[in-house]
C-alpha cells in the first residue's frame, strides 16, 4: 500500500513539474518575436516551378510581414492557404513555428506528366494526380506533349481533377483529356514506353497517334480501348519486325483493329 502511495506521489510531482515547465515555456514563447523565415522546397532539383523568392513575394503581396511579429500570433494555416491559392504549382504548403523565433515554410511542388497544346495555342500541364496546372514563365518541364485536334481549353478545366472527378472523354467533340491522362499514366509506368514515346497527336478523326523518339514512323493507337493489348502487340512487332527490317521501313503502324497491326510502307 505504501509503495502504491509513493508511486502515486512521484507521478503527481512529475505531472506538476511538467505543467509548470509548459506554462513557463508558453509564457516565454509569447514574448518571442519572429526573427527569420526559412523556405525549403522539395524536389527542386527536378522541377523548378517555385523559388524561395516566389514564396516571400506571395506573402508580401498579401501584406503578410512576419519579421518582428510575436511568434504565437502567426496564423500558420492562413499562410498555407495563401501560398496554395496564389501559386497553382504548389501541391502542398506546410508552415510551422519554432521556439527560437523562426517560421519554417516547406513547399511540395506539383509533378507534371503531360503538356497540352490546343490548336489556338492554349497550353497547360496535367500533373501526376490529374490536376490541371498552368505553365510557368521560369521553367519548362520535359514531359510528353499532347497536341492536335483537341477541344480542351485551359479555362474549361481550372480546378478539375481528372482522377477524382471521373470525367468522361467524348471522341465526337475532341474532348479527350481523361483518356489522354490515362494513356500518359500507362506510358510513364512502363520504362520502355516512357523512353520511346515523346509526343501524342490527335488527328482530324480524333484518333490518337503516337510519335516515337526512335524511328521515322507514326503509331496510330486510335483510342485507349484495349490499351495494354495494343502496346503488347506493338512491343512484339518492334522486336520481331522492325528490328529485322529497319526502323524507317514503315510510314504508319496502325493498332486500331483488334489483334491486328496494319502497316503502311514508306514510298
- CATH fold field value of the largest domain: Rossmann fold
Give the H and E element order.
Answer: HEHHEEEEEEHHEEEHEE
Class of the largest domain, according to the CATH hierarchy?
Alpha Beta
Mind describing the biggest β-sheet? 9 strands, mixed
In terms of structural class, how would the helical and strand content be classed?
A: alpha/beta
List the uncertain runs. 19-27
Total of helices = 6
Total discrete domains: 2
Notable features of this structure?
single chain; 267 residues; alpha/beta; Ubiquitin-like (UB roll); Rossmann fold; three-stranded mixed beta sheet; 6 helices; 12 strands; elongated
Overview of this structure, please?
This protein has 267 residues and is of the alpha/beta class. It has two domains: 36-109, Ubiquitin-like (UB roll), CATH 3.10.20.310; 112-265, Rossmann fold. It is 32% helix and 24% strand. Strands 6-5-4-7-8-9-10-11-12 form a nine-stranded mixed sheet. A three-stranded mixed sheet has the order 1-3-2, with helices on one face.
Amino acid at each position: 500500500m505504501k509503495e502504491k502511495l509513493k508511486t502515486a506521489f512521484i507521478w503527481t510531482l512529475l505531472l506538476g513539474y511538467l505543467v509548470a515547465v509548459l506554462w513557463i515555456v508558453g509564457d516565454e514563447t509569447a514574448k518571442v518575436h519572429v526573427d527569420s523565415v526559412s523556405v525549403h522546397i522539395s524536389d527542386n532539383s527536378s522541377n523548378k516551378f517555385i523559388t524561395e523568392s516566389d514564396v516571400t513575394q506571395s506573402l508580401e503581396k498579401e501584406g503578410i510581414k512576419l519579421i518582428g511579429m510575436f511568434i504565437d500570433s502567426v496564423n500558420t494555416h492562413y499562410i498555407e492557404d495563401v501560398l496554395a491559392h496564389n501559386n497553382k504549382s504548389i501541391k502542398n504548403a506546410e508552415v510551422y513555428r519554432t521556439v527560437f523565433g523562426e517560421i519554417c515554410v516547406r513547399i511540395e511542388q506539383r509533378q507534371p506528366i503531360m503538356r497540352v497544346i490546343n490548336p489556338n495555342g492554349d497550353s497547360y500541364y496535367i500533373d501526376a494526380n490529374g490536376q490541371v496546372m498552368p505553365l510557368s514563365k521560369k521553367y519548362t518541364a520535359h514531359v510528353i506533349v499532347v497536341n492536335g485536334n483537341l477541344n480542351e481549353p485551359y479555362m474549361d478545366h481550372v480546378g478539375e481533377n481528372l482522377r477524382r472527378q471521373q470525367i468522361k472523354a467524348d471522341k465526337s467533340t475532341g474532348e479527350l483529356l481523361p483518356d489522354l491522362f490515362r494513356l500518359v499514366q500507362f506510358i510513364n509506368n512502363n520504362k520502355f514506353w516512357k523512353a520511346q514515346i515523346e509526343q501524342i497527336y490527335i488527328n482530324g478523326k480524333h484518333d490518337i497517334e503516337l510519335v516515337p523518339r526512335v524511328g521515322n514512323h507514326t503509331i496510330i493507337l486510335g483510342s485507349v480501348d484495349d490499351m495494354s493489348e495494343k502496346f503488347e502487340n506493338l512491343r512484339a512487332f518492334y522486336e520481331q519486325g522492325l528490328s529485322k527490317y529497319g526502323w524507317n521501313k514503315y510510314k504508319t503502324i496502325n493498332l486500331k483493329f483488334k489483334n491486328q497491326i496494319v502497316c503502311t510502307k514508306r514510298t
